[in-house]
Every structure is written in C-alpha cells, then in structure tokens.
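As a warm-up, study this chain.
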Amino acid sequence: MRNILIIGAGRSASSLIQYLLHKSDAENLHLTIGDLSKELAARKTNNHKNATAIALDIFDANQRQTEIQKADIVISMLPAHLHIEVAKDCITYKKNMVTASYVSDAMQELDAAAKANNLIFMNEIGLDPGIDHMSAMKVIDEIRDQGGKMILFESFCGGLVAPESDNNLWNYKFTWAPRNVVLAGQGGAAKFIQEGTYKYIPYHKLFRRTEFLEVEGYGRFEGYANRDSLKYRSVYGLDDALTLYRGTIRKVGFSKAWNMFVQLGMTDDSYKIDNSDTISYREFVNLFLPYHPTDSVEIKLRLQLGIEQDDIMWDKLIELDLFNANKIVGLKDASPAQILEKILAEKWTLEPHDKDMIVMYHKFGYEINGVQKQIDSKMVCLGDDQTYTAMAKTVGLPVAMATLQILNGKIKTPGVQLPINKEVYLPILKELEEYGVIFNEIEKDYLGYNPDRLKH
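Now compare it with the structure written out below.
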C-alpha cells in the first residue's frame, strides 16, 4: 500500500479525504490522517478500511518526523505558517509535498533543496489560490499558442451562500475561516494596474470601490479589489498587460454594509479591549461612538454612519442583534475584530441543511492578427451540505488530484511550484469537470476596462 500522510483534518479536508478514499482500492492507497483532534480525523475517515486516524501534534518533532518517514507523499492542510517545519522534514526524508497555501518566502527558500533531491513541492493548488491559477493559465496559454498578445486580465472569486440557503439581509454566511473574512483587505492598500496606470485603494476606501459582475442564472454580484493584484504579474507572464485586477466576489450590497464596520473601527485587530469578557454587545457598539448625555446607542450610531431608521443598512445591523444589552461578549483580552467575528458567527454560520456556493469569473482581453478580442470565463460550484461544501470541494479536490498525479509519476517537474504548467493544470481541470467545477468560456468583442461598471 502507498501511504499518504494528511496533516490537518479541518473543514477543507473533507472532500480531499473522500476523493482519495474513493480511489484507495484501485490506486492501492492507505491514508494516515493526523490532527490535534483524533476524533475529528476519525470522523473524516467514515471508518474506511484504508484510513487510519491519529492524534498528531505538529510541534512534536519526533512524532511528526516518524509519520513523515512512513509516508510516500505528504499533504499539509495546516494553517500556512505551520507548513515550513513539515516541508523541511520532507526535504530531510525525501518526500514530495502538496499544500493549498500561498508560497511563503521560507517555502521558496527550499526550492533549490527540493530540486537537488528531485522533489515536487506543489503549493497554491486549492481554490484561490489554485483553480484560479489553472483556469487562467489554460486560457492565457491558448491565446499565446494562437499568436495572441494579452492586454487585460481580471479575475474575481468568492465563497458565498447558495441561493436556496440565502436567508439573511446580508446575503452572506461564513463558508471558510471567519477571521480571514473579518480581516480581509487589511495590511496595506489594494494595488492593481488599469490601462497602464498603477492604482491604489486604501483600506478605508476599499469597500466603496466595487464593480458589478453578471453571472448567467445567478444574477448580479459585486467585486472589491484584492490587496495585491500584481503579485502574479510575472508568474502569469503578464508584464506587458495594460490592466491587471484581482478581486473578491460578494452579493450586491454586502460591501457597502461591511464598510460600516470598517468606518466604526470594529474590524481593527491591532489592540485589545480591556474588559472585553464582561461587556455586552450593546456596550461593544458604544465603545466606538461619542458620548452624549441623552442620545441612545442606536441614535448615536445612525448619526455617526449617516443612515436613517428606514434604511436597509439599519435593518442589517438590527438583524445581527448588535444592540442586545443582555448578550455578553465573553472573550478575554479580545480585539475589536475578534469580538465582531464572534457576533457575526452567531448569525452567519451555515446550518446543517445549508449549501454554499463558489463563484469565479475571469476576463481576458487580447489582440490577435490586429483584432482585439475578449473571453469571459465563469464557474459556479454548489456545495452538497455543511460538510461537503463547495469550498471543501474546490479547495480539497485539486489537492487530492495533484497528490495522485505526483504519486503516479504524471507530474514530474521538481521544485517549489504553483500549478501553472500544462502537465499540472490540463489533467486536473479536466477531472474537476466530473465534480461540477466547469468553466464556461464565451468569446466576444473586446470591451476594455469599462469604468462605467464601477459603482463609485
């Protein structure tokens, strides 16, 4: 049996494990699933004969190294900052490794050692990053193979709630790490290039600079800019493109409402609130408002944000139970962002019957034989339930497929890498279609970067 070590059995691991177990008899696989919680790992195995759940402490070097030595390939589904010790052990014991996380500087430094040992360290092969890279490079390579020159590339992706489970005024529920949603866009201005000019959007303006996107059968969405759209400019070979923009998708109206939290300061994670464990939700809101001897918290908030009582924005705040004087935060030494996350999680957690949805949208502008053209590529993937979510599917399946491709010698290029080469993305994109991850590509006349789509 070929042993695959999977480290981390969190929510993104469910579809990954299911896929590999389904293939385990035909492919002669045994899965060792290690997590701090053996119970969680065991639940993901569904008592399958080709899986073993173990309690694994990633900080126990002896245990970690023992399990890595026994593996034929290692999948790390840990938080990104914890991959590096696993990666170093994989160099030591000459094991290939797969992760869905961004390539860190520390990981990139292992490139020479990985190549020297003929090891494949496949990174950024989840959803975003991952499927976005593969689906984009497929079209970009096809354009280049025909002699075309790229002018524009825009890419948007979002984890959302499926239409049938969309039952709150925010049209949103958490489908991945809530903390990442609360902190989205922080840490510097969003940066992109538009018609040859660099553009920057500071955090306090980010959620008011959005674009409209139409997805057939699902209606209208909005997108706000990712922090650094130019990160993959050279990776994709788009140094000469006039426009390069990457963004996050939400339902229309979300960004404007989220901006209320940003302007109040509730998304700040840089300091702790002294009595955070004993204050009520109402008192938490009042922390960000000026003193007034007679005005209520509600009146002060409406004045601060400039919203009326009959505004849908006000209804969205009421729906979150923000003004409840009887609900206690109960988090010791918490930042505003941590408290906001707790409040939102009570209202935005997927119910057992809820389904989520992934929407991805690429736009390619290019010139070929003196004619400018455009391709729009759109993908919508729906989850099955609270466990086998669209997020788990789109993050976990590419990881699993790449693992099997490496194990079977189909992916051969060594080194620390992204899934941007044809040997990686062609077979994986083709297989993903069997699981409902299908890109619909439409060619049209080139429209350019259309500023009329901007709401502000």
